[in-house]
Design a protein that fits this description.
Largest sheet: none
Number of domains: 1
Helix content: over 70%
Distance between the termini: 74 Å
Number of strands: 0
Shape: globular
Structural class: mainly alpha
Order of helices and strands: HHHHHHH
Radius of gyration: 19 Å
Number of helices: 7
Length: 223
């Protein structure tokens, strides 16, 4: 009896801690997505553009700042700085579709709705089944590295079929990351809700961009 009681008392705090991480992660993720949408709206309205080197430097610099401050209150400020900045970088992309396609607003809406549907479906599946998807880590890392190299190559070769294939690969990879990251939170592999939020946000961001590119290539009507 004493052994069973000790077992229950040991498990209970672990479950409570995991539930707390899940709750805090999804609350913070919701807030950062809304804030990112707000900064994207500002960027789109004011037609804010940034040099590529600024975008890359800003992203990795703020990502490092989040990682360095994740265990302090400063981490929350860092998360909103990163996601707000990423929202600003969306402005030129959204304007390209809105102004370059006669059905641009519909494409953006469809990509946004598809991103939400995929995220909630995959997160719901991972939470319901509580499966451990940690075995996907190696595959996702290698797959992302290959897809990024292919994406760089695609910048020099204007081949529509290649661009669609790369975007489709990113859709699959980001979907895998959502399963993996959600599994990490549920099974105790990720205890820091700030890092969990950033991981899921980046997956959502890339998933949205990939879906938007596929929809634009397949069903976009250029002006």
């Amino acid at each position: 009896m004493q052994q069973n009681f000790n077992s229950v008392s040991t498990v209970a705090p672990s479950v409570l801690a995991t539930n707390k991480v899940i709750r805090n992660t999804y609350i913070l993720l919701s807030l950062t997505v809304l804030f990112s949408a707000f900064t994207a709206f500002i960027s789109t309205t004011m037609n804010i553009t940034m040099p590529f080197i600024v975008v890359i430097g800003g992203y990795f610099g703020l990502l490092y700042l989040v990682s360095a401050t994740a265990n302090s209150a400063m981490g929350l400020i860092s998360v909103f700085a990163l996601t707000g900045f990423m929202g600003l970088t969306l402005g030129p992309i959204l304007n390209m579709y809105i102004q370059g396609f006669s059905n641009g607003p519909e494409l953006v809406t469809a990509a946004l709705a598809s991103t939400g549907a995929i995220f909630f479906s995959l997160s719901g599946y991972a939470m319901t089944t509580r499966k451990d998807f940690s075995y996907m880590a190696g595959f996702l890392f290698v797959g992302t590295a290959i897809a990024m190299l292919a994406g760089i190559a695609g910048m020099f070769f204007n081949v529509p079929a290649l661009q669609i294939a790369i975007s489709a690969a990113f859709v699959l990879l980001m979907s895998g990351y959502i399963l993996f990251q959600t599994s990490q939170i549920i099974n105790g592999g990720e205890r820091n809700y700030i890092m969990a939020t950033v991981s899921l946000y980046v997956s959502l961001f890339n998933l949205f961009l990939s879906l938007l590119q596929i929809l634009g290539a397949l069903s976009g009507r250029r002006n």
